[in-house]
Structure formats: structure tokens, C-alpha cells
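Worked example 4.2. Below are the chains of a multi-component assembly; read each line carefully before continuing.
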Amino acid sequence: MDVLKIATAGSVDDGKSTLIGRLLYDTHSLTEDKLAAIEKSSKQKGFDYLDFSLATDGLVAEREQGITIDVAHIYFSTRNRSYIIADTPGHVEYTRNMVTGASTSQASIILVDARNGVIEQTRRHFFINNLLHIKDVVVAVNKMDLVNYDETVFNEIRQEFQQLVDAAAYKNQNITFVPISALHGDNVIQASANMPWFKGTNLLEHLEAIDANDVQVKGQARLQVQTVIRPKKEGFHDYRGYAGKLKGNDLSIGEEVTILPSGHTSKIKSISFFNEDYETALQGSSITVTLEDDRDVSRGDMIVKSTELPRSTKQLVATICWMDQTPMTATRKYQLQHGVHKVQSKIKQITHKITADFSGDLERTETLTMNDLGEVKIQTNRPVHCDAFEVNKENGSFILIDPQSNTTAGVGFIHT
Amino acid sequence: MKSTLKKNALENEAIYIMREVQAQFENPVILFSGGKDSITLVRLAQKAFYPAKIPFPLLHVDTGHNFPETIEFRDRLVKELDLTLHVHHVQDNIDAGRVKEEKGKYASRNVLQTETLLDAIEAHGFDACIGGARRDEEKARAKERMFSVRDDFGQWDERNQRPEVFDMLNGKIDFGQNVRVFPISNWTELDVWSYIQQEKIDIPSIYFAHRRNVFLRDGLIWPAHDEFVYREEDENVIEKTVRFRTVGDMSCTAAVESDAFNIENVVEEIRQSSLSERGARIDDKRSEAAMEKRKQQGYF
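Applying the procedure described above to all two chains together yields the following C-alpha cells:
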């Protein structure tokens, strides 16, 4: 089934939870018992309307504080397809959650409060969306009911936001503006009678039109081996299947391939998925391939077309989003996980970080603390077979694992 | 040979996760309840490692209050796929006096499973437990990671979860810790049912409409079973055509009235349904934060 994953970001007061609750309600994805729970809760709190935000605020701790503290996943579907919303909080200390949510999303919704316009937080949300090359960004100007559904207000916000877009590093994004009232439902799944001046499509119509399988930049085929399948049973004595998820582009049988790091070459003999063989696999498929020749291939090795070799390097320059309580400092060592391939790494230099106002300005720094974004030079003990992030997101990113705490301490986006 | 492999994003993701579990852990296990979600996990594991056999044993935490249809089904599946099955009984812990059975109208052994599960993990030294939980089931589950690290006491610390960026899974743990793995996190109930239909996966018969003795309480249909399910004198047993949407401990699994006699009917019923799946789970009705509390204590 077709799935579109959307990252949402917005502050506590932008009405993000209300918007999500509204989407669930209007697409009939809120079940009767959930709706009853919302009605009960709204009544207890003394609201005279349904508080849809209660549909999404998950954990006890955050219900007590009235904030969202982590990435929550919310599901709704239309006749057309399924949607997964990765909902992340907006406050300053949670850049890491926003990066996490956006990393697997094809689209995002940025909420702007019509009364406040573009604020620092809007800048941060857009910056992260741009950094992660999210293809479709919808700017939902919310609470239009509180500014009398005024077209001028909407246009001013649009112009202000457009300045961010013009200044952004990554240019290949589709940016769409929609004036809405999540509370009353204007332009969420129906055209608003209060805003006849708005000629664009409503929010859901716009989401429905996004092609989930359309990758902006087609990269080159990369098959990193997760595991070698060697069945010990009749009929499969010499079978060696290399199992992994195909990334970047499609792969077909007969293709001349090179195995990295050994550099040995062979041809793709078969591509299978469970008990069926295929001529071609599309990128994103979890397949098993066999090779014409008996080659030494193990977990973490990469199979690529011989004419399309990735960069094999022990020196990486990357933008890092730091996610751990313990700051990153130069000379510290981390385990670097690129896809499923793990190597040892050492921080050579922290070049600079992005200033906290997300204007895009840079400042010198010795350390990266949690939620910082900075440029870092890294040395690895073994080569990493990678692409630049802008060419192949999945083969152009890695995580850093703290050897003491075992936690995922940061994520990196590889530069060209 | 077929020409082009079509993409099923959810299935590809789940298979990818299964393979990561096998590669990153020494001693993984599939938590198997006999329910549709764990049956789906078994199929995904089968696909991930074909033509080799599934490299994980199954663990069934048995409350003793099973639907007999589920146990028959379990044993048949284990035999068919040549799997290893470990069964741990809640009854053993009750007999040993380590946990106390609930009493009264709402008595259930569901909560008692946690202790038995943790014992089993320790006894076998499992470092990864693959479970069929889905994020759409319940709001505390919505924040669960694919790889969820638990401490020696099986506890979940929702404020200290590892970020999961792109598809990279970090399964690095210390001795004594273990990871709960949820390959079908992103599936909805409808996705699971559609998959069962598409793959023609066999499931226990209680998922389909059948005549059963039941009684009504709090607007829910409870299975009537004098040994396992407590019933007040004025709660009369009646016969109805029902099916179960989840398969759990008999004392906490409500039935729904249904005429869905086959998989096509079930998928259509789910599509149209307006009662969420856990709405028929009596254990979640206890309080708004019921699931979150159980998870912090090590519930699966």
C-alpha cells in the first residue's frame, strides 16, 4: 500500500495538535471510543468545544505539562493511501527530535500562527526541513479565524516566509502556502467559505497529490549487505544469498557489479524476494541477490554497479546534529554507523556551528552540545563507501554512537 | 521469473528490521502470542531469511487462560516451519507465590505476564525480543522505537530513548540489557489484515465469526468461561455470533458481534469499523494511562 510520511512541527501554541486531531476527525480516522475519550476529557477540563489536541498528546508526563516531548507517530488514511505523521515538538531544546522525525519523511507541514507571523521557531523548522532536503513543504498559516480571515495577513506572512526560502541552501523544494483554521476546519479538508479569496487547494487535497514514490534526485544503486544467507538444507548446498535493502536506484540481473571494500567484480545472477525471482528490483526493496562468481562478501560490504562506484574514503566532512547530553569535542572517538556498516571514528575538527537564531550564520566553536548543528571533520579507521547527502540521502548519512553509553549521540549528513 | 519487484514500504521495512536483529544480536526471540500480529511477524521472518529457516525461536508467555483454538494453531505452525518453541507459564509464578492472582469481577492474568516474561528473558539470556506491537494501537505505543532498550528490570524509560534517524538501527547494549524490537511499528490494524489477506496467511479460527456463549458487561461482550472468567450471578450467558479482534488472555479479551466469516469479510469490517481495536481490550479501560504504566514496568 502507498504510504506518505509527513513531519509536523510547530510550537505548543500554534495549534499543531489541534490540526492533527482535525485531520484525524475529518478523515474519520478517530474511532468512536477515542472520540468518546476526547469528549470526556474536554468536558472535564471545562472546554465548550472538542479539544482535538487530546487525540495526539500521548504520555502522562506531557499531558500534565501540556507539551509534546518526543516524536510521536500518528496514522490516518484516506481512500487514496495511508499517512504517517511524525509529530515533533517545536521548542528550542528539541532540534534533535525534529531532525529524527524529518529524516524519514517525504513531506512536512510547518505551522505558522497568523497572529505572530514568521518567528524564530518558524525559521528553525524551515532550516531543518531544508537541511534534510524534504521535498514537499506545506506552510499552514493557522488561526486565520483570529485575524478575521484577512487575505492581507496571509500574503504578508507568505512574503516573509519566501525570504527564508530565497536564502536557503537547498533549492529543490516545493513550498506551498495554505491559510487554515484547524479549530474550525477551514481549508483542512474542505474549501473555506470564510476565505473565498484563497484559490489554492486545501491542505489534504494538496497532500493527496504528492507522489510518495517520486524521489527528487535519483542516485545510484547501493546494496549494503545486512546478512549472508546460507541455508543448511537439501537443494541449497552452494547457495549464498546477500540480503539487504536496495538504496539509491533500481538493480537488475546481469548487471556487472563491484563489491566494496574488496574491489572484486562479478555479475548479478539472481534477485529474489522470498520465494520469487525477479528481473529488476526497485530501490527501497529488501531483497536477496546471488552473484555469478564465488566471492568473499560479508555484512557491511556494499554491492554497486561497476560503472557507478561511490566515494570510498576515511576522511569525512559532514554537518552533524548533536543529540546527546554529553557534548561532542574534538579528538573524541565514536563508533560511526553508515547504514549497517560500523567503523571506528575520531573527531578531527569542529569547524563551526550554526547560530542559535537559525539565520544561517556560523560561529566558531570547540564543542557541539545537544541540539547544535555544526560542520565537523571526521577520520575513520576503515573506508566508508558513501555518496553526498544531496545525491543519496540514505547512503549520505551516518550516526555516531557513544562507546561508553551506547547511545546514538549524533547524526551526520555527508558533504560533497 | 517475474519482471519487476513492486515495492511494499511497510513489508520492506519489517524485513530490513528482522535482518538487523539477526545480525546485531546473539540470542533473539520472537514473542509469540498466537495472535494475528505475532503470526504476521513469523511470516515476515520467514521472508527475510528464505531459503534458510527462521533463525529465531518463539517464546509464548502462557497465562493459562487461552483460547484452545490458539494453542492448536501455535503448535501446528511450529511444526510446519520447524521452529523451536519455549513456553513459560504464569501459573508457575503463581504457584511459587511470586505473583498474586487478582480477585473479583475484573480479575485478569494479563498484568501477571510481565513477571513471567522477564523471568523467561533472564533464564534464556535473550538479548532481543521481537514483538508485534504497533504504534497505532495505543498512544503510549505511538512513541515506541523500533529498537527499544530495556534495563535489567525490563523497564522502559520514555525520556531516554535513542533517536532513530533514517533507517539506521543502533542495537548496542551492555550485558544484562535487552532490546524490544517492533518490526511492524508502522502498520495499522488494517495494514495487518490486508497483509494477511494478500499473503493468504492462516490465522486461528476465533478471528472469524462463530457462535459462542458470552455475557454482557459494561457494554462489552465477554467470553463465558466459568473457569477463567469471573461472572456475577445476574450476568446471564447468552449465545451470539461473534469474533475476536485481538487474541489475548481470555479474561481480558472482549468479542465483537460480527458476521465476518472469512478474511474478505474481516478486512471489509475493519475498513468500516468505528471501534478501535484496543477498545475491546478490557485491560486498557482501567485508566487513561494504563498502558504507559504497564510499559514502564516491563510489559511487552
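Take a moment to check your reading of the output against the notes. Residues 9-191+289-296 of chain B form a domain with the Rossmann fold fold (CATH 3.40.50.620). The radius of gyration of chain B is 19 Å.
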